[in-house]
Amino acid sequence: MTVVPSQTPGHGTDRAATVPAARAAPPVGDGHGPSSPSASRKFLARATLVTAALSIGGSLLGLVRDQSLARLFGAGSDTDAFLVAWTVPEISATLLIEDGLAIALIPAFSMALARRARGVAGDPVRELVAATLPRLSLAFVAVAALVAGTAPFLVEVLAPGLPDPRLAVDCTRLTAISLLAFGLAGYCSAALRAHRRFFAPGAIYIAYNTGIVATMFLLGGEWGVRAAAAGVAVGGCLMVAVQLPSLWRQLASRAPAAVGGAQGGGEERPVRLALIAAVLLFALCRQSQVLVERFLASALPAGAISHLNYAQKVAQIPMTLSLMVCTVTFPVVARALADGDTERARDRVERDLVLSSCVVLLGMCAVLACAPQMIELLFQRGAFTASDTAATSDVMRVYALGLLGQTLVGTLIRSYFSAGRPSWYPLAVMGVGIVATSLIGAVAVRPWGVAGIAAANAVGITVTAALLLAGLRTSRRGGAGGVRLRVRQVLAALGRPVLASVGATAAGAFAASRADSPLAGLAAGSLTVTAVFVALSLALRVQGSASAVRSVRTITRKLTHDRFR
């Protein structure tokens, strides 16, 4: 059910991750009640904390998954074949869970919740589910069957340089099952987040990676790397299973509103095909960067695709953590726009841009400073050798240069679709970025190998981020009711943490190089990066840095008090 100020948050595990609906009811009391801005901030902080904890858990299990893959199968031709097949689930996860269905469906559910709160006849939320879920499920089944049937053609297109494509074809057919599971998981996730429930959606990658790791160890000896492909399908099914109970409670707990209770219901905006097409095509175009990378890397010596994959998986952890802010606040922005509060939505997006950028820049500094130590500690065992460590860490440092662009794209794209209206501009600028990635990669791959591919990725996504930010300037036309940003102020705010990251990276790299063991080097480098970045952020007066430090102190004192009282 929708959480309004007069109601108690949800039941069970979702209670700690509930955020009040934006402007669902007028403020009451003395300004300190549940509907006050301070209460809303507390709920947002609580939801962010839950999402962060679950995201970190999912990321750590993702590292365990990659460590298991490296330990069991190394970085040779078999692993390359699986990673080519894994391209399909990676793309579908973005399309159906992260940047695709969520961006299209959360505004639709937010509008349905706003209409329900205004007393519109019937139950708009259930009507939305009945109108969309059956059709989307049929589409998911059709796409999964199509991928399984055309697996040989897909492998040939994705990696024409593979010496033996048969293993990749088998893995592709196994992973095709995950397309249906990802679609259903993405639908559940979007519906729950619109209802301000974040625990179950945040736990999906814990379930996913658990399924992959367990299947690899259970079947790896008999099936080889095909066990990893089967694990992807098992993990996808677990993503749906962890969300169904919570979603069922949300849909079953609210009786339809009475017909006589309607009071000026807002305009109904159903989920239009143009909106879904615009969102999914953008997400597909963005993920085509992976296709370009693996296409170019398939012509390099065996292991090149694996080195690029391991480097990306580690380097993307800071980006994943930075985007958790947008995961929590996107439903808030969508609901604010559904209620007509465009100024509140704009302020929220601008704050999110700076905060998410600070998080990813801090992580980027650690990656640049401590890349060899990270890879050695995480992967150098079993079939993963010291030469694999050196190659992967070199690639990871280059790839990390594009993390700020990746985060900005992930943050900005939500602003284009938060009002529930189609926009084709993001697709056009993502196309420009892909062209840049392809051309630069084709030129750079010969002299610099995998590092050249990673550099092309960084340049292409940074170009896309710049164009997306320019498209949201306050002077642009169209998109009434959408988010428009004060771009100059945003750029000025972003410049300060970028300067802080330069100093933090240099200091962290020096500290890491002075240690003898990789563990000591990683600890010294990470602590130095954090200390220098925070100090420089405070000195440069980075937006929100002082309040963030105060919040950490408050939380630390509270935890200490709760522990010892």
From TrEMBL:
<feature type="transmembrane region" description="Helical">
    <location>
        <begin position="43"/>
        <end position="64"/>
    </location>
</feature>
<feature type="transmembrane region" description="Helical">
    <location>
        <begin position="353"/>
        <end position="375"/>
    </location>
</feature>
<keyword id="KW-0812">Transmembrane</keyword>
<feature type="transmembrane region" description="Helical">
    <location>
        <begin position="199"/>
        <end position="219"/>
    </location>
</feature>
<feature type="transmembrane region" description="Helical">
    <location>
        <begin position="174"/>
        <end position="192"/>
    </location>
</feature>
<feature type="transmembrane region" description="Helical">
    <location>
        <begin position="451"/>
        <end position="472"/>
    </location>
</feature>
<keyword id="KW-1133">Transmembrane helix</keyword>
<keyword id="KW-1003">Cell membrane</keyword>
<keyword id="KW-0573">Peptidoglycan synthesis</keyword>
<feature type="region of interest" description="Disordered">
    <location>
        <begin position="1"/>
        <end position="39"/>
    </location>
</feature>
<dbReference type="Pfam" id="PF03023">
    <property type="entry name" value="MurJ"/>
</dbReference>
<keyword id="KW-0133">Cell shape</keyword>
<feature type="transmembrane region" description="Helical">
    <location>
        <begin position="519"/>
        <end position="540"/>
    </location>
</feature>
<feature type="transmembrane region" description="Helical">
    <location>
        <begin position="225"/>
        <end position="244"/>
    </location>
</feature>
<feature type="transmembrane region" description="Helical">
    <location>
        <begin position="493"/>
        <end position="513"/>
    </location>
</feature>
<feature type="transmembrane region" description="Helical">
    <location>
        <begin position="135"/>
        <end position="154"/>
    </location>
</feature>
<dbReference type="InterPro" id="IPR004268">
    <property type="entry name" value="MurJ"/>
</dbReference>
<protein>
    <submittedName>
        <fullName>Lipid II flippase MurJ</fullName>
    </submittedName>
</protein>
<keyword id="KW-0472">Membrane</keyword>
<dbReference type="InterPro" id="IPR051050">
    <property type="entry name" value="Lipid_II_flippase_MurJ/MviN"/>
</dbReference>
<feature type="compositionally biased region" description="Low complexity">
    <location>
        <begin position="15"/>
        <end position="29"/>
    </location>
</feature>
<feature type="transmembrane region" description="Helical">
    <location>
        <begin position="424"/>
        <end position="445"/>
    </location>
</feature>
<feature type="compositionally biased region" description="Polar residues">
    <location>
        <begin position="1"/>
        <end position="10"/>
    </location>
</feature>
<feature type="transmembrane region" description="Helical">
    <location>
        <begin position="395"/>
        <end position="417"/>
    </location>
</feature>
